[in-house]
Amino acid sequence: MKLMGLDVGSKTVGVAVSDAFGWTSQGVEIIRIDEENGEFGLDRVAELVSELGIGGFVLGLPKNMNNTLGDRAVASQEYGKKLEKKFGLPIDFEDERLTTVEASRMLTEEADISRRKRKKVIDKLAASLILQNYLDRKGDLTKK
């Protein structure tokens, strides 16, 4: 079963997808949203779900460093409720503390790309890291 990993922000949603075995995660795209005006990009998510054969979602849960849930974590949970209502697919959350920092470091040190180019791919990479962390923690999904 393929999973879709999402890094939900107030202006963008980074999208990643797993392989059918649940071993690897690959960044797909960044969907522009406008949380303030109620635009959540669900139509594009629906296209990707259909196109890629998605069977569930993993959303990043941006906890505070002291393990509490702040405004962004609550917003991520609300996004999960919207997905659940629209698609009826399983939703899981993955602690995403520091994934954006890790993604930024990877792009700076390993890819050596400019700040402007980093901004265009960082959410997609963060979504991929969130999903990969989830897959690594859960193990082989074909055995479940």
Secondary-structure map:
Layout: E1 2-8, E2 12-18, E3 25-32, H1 42-52, E4 54-61, H2 71-87, E5 91-95, H3 99-109, H4 115-138
Parallel strand pairs: 1-4, 4-5
Antiparallel strand pairs: 1-2, 2-3
Question: How would you explain this protein's 3D organization?
Answer:
- With about 140 residues, the protein is α/β, with parallel strands linked by helices.
- The protein has a single domain, classed as YqgF/RNase H-like domain (Nucleotidyltransferase, domain 5, 2-Layer Sandwich).
- Helices cover about 45% and strands about 25% of the residues.
- β4, α2 and β5 (about 90-95) form a beta-alpha-beta unit.
- The termini are close together.
Helices and strands, in order, run as: EEEHEHEHH
The helical percent reads 40-55%
Instruction: Describe the sheet with the most strands.
Output: 5 strands, mixed
The total tally of domains equals 1
**Low-pLDDT residue spans:** none
Query: What would you report as the Rg, rounded to the nearest angstrom?
Result: 14 Å
List the defining traits of the structure above.
144 residues, globular
Task: Briefly characterize the structure.
This protein has 144 residues and is an alpha/beta fold. The chain is 44% helix and 24% strand.
